[in-house]
Amino acid sequence: MWPDRRLLDLLQIEHPIVQAPMAGAMDWELAAAVSQAGGLGSLPCAMLNPKQVLEQVEKIRGRTDKPININFFCHQPPKADNAREAAWRDRLASYYRELGLDPHAAVNAPSRAPFNAEMCEILVELKPKVASFHFGLPETPLVARVKAAGCLVFSSATTAAEARWLAERGADVIIAQGYEAGGHRGMFLTEDLAAQVGTFALVPQVVDAVTVPVIAAGGITDARGIAAAFALGAAGVQMGTAFLFCPEAKISAPHRAAFKSARDDATALTNLMTGRPARGVYNRLMRDLGPISDIAPQFPLAAAAVAPLRLQCRGARFRRLFTLVVRASGGARSGNAGARAAGKTLRRGTPASQPARCRRGLNRCRESGFLVKGSGASSRSRVSIAQRRNAMCP
Is the pTM higher than 0.90? Predict the structure, then answer.
């Protein structure tokens, strides 16, 4: 069925579907369920300390012996800017007062630490099948240690230039993250949001730019999106929001309801939640302040002042403030899924679950010269841009 089997062969999994790591919205249960069902489950570790990482991975391995992905951030730690942080807290003070909170109280918010030598030791000890990174790659010696431990290295690219940079520095698989993707933009060679492109414009550019397998990410929630990604040369897809409807996800009922009712225009990129652009359900904070604010401190410092508001709004006040709290996640097609277990979500996402529609699409692409049967880079079609254009035109 799959035109490019390299991801399946690398990971020895049944379905070419990676569950996106979503820090703050899931834990080991979702990762274990997806891996057990034949996809690649991912554990987000950016907000965990080393002990918690060990505990969570132990629980996953108590549930399944299938491959797993352990994910880390590798951003540059920000420099403290007390004046900017104070201005940010002052800007949010009216929301604190509305919720009966003290805007000057100390905040104990979870940190988002970049991958470092201590976490590398944990990774080497655990030896997961995949170690994935967001915001580029760690320092070269750390990447070398991860690969020496037998881990495959995945990382996200938002441009073809980022994809080439990652491949040149040892990434085994590139995740092409389109503009529609939920969660943080993985951009690291640019800060120009205006130049970011959508998934199905990005994927073929990345496929042509590198020789390693490419995973398509952003706005993919069903078999149609997977078939389209394969038609453009992807070897797999990464899905996040679709799995937030699963009972294994750790989000509130109002949060799920906001996703379920979301329309195509219900999300936007915002830096208000953490200081870095991330796609989130449009909420009151974004409406009042604008999705992007120059006042918000650098990532991840902005999150500290927002955290008490999010916690306070998880209960009865959620509807009145309409998702002042909703986490910065949710792809551009948030409303396409209903509540179902992770394994069922994964199986329903494959073209096998919608064979007539998706196989017809793949066959047409194959007949037009876009795809050829087989596996590995040597089996992929190398037709020219002109040939591709001609194949689409009568």
Answer: no
